[in-house]
Amino acid sequence: MKSRLSLNKQILIGCLAGVAAGVVLAGLEPGDPVGQGTLYGAKLVGTLFLDLLRMVLIPLVFSSIVVGVANLRAHEQMHRVWTLTLGFFLLSMALAIVLGFTAAEVFRPGEGMQLALFAEATRDYQARQMPLADYVAQFLHGLFQNPIKALAQGDILAVVVIALVLGVAMVVGGERYKNLRGFVEEVQELCLLVVGWIMRLAPFGIAALLLQLVATQKLDLLQSLVHFIAVIIGSTVVHGAVVLPLLLYLVTGMSPLRFWRGSREALITAFATSSSAATLPVTLRCTEQHLHVKKDIANFVVPLGATVNMDGTALYEAAAALFVARLAGIELDLAHQLVIFFVAMLGAVGAPGIPSVGMLSMVLVLQSVGLPTEAIAILLPIDRILDTVRTAVNVEGDMVGSLIVQKLVNKPGSIRSTDS
Ligand code: ASP
Question: Distance from the CA of 265 to the center of ligand 1, in angstroms?
Answer without folding.
Answer: 18
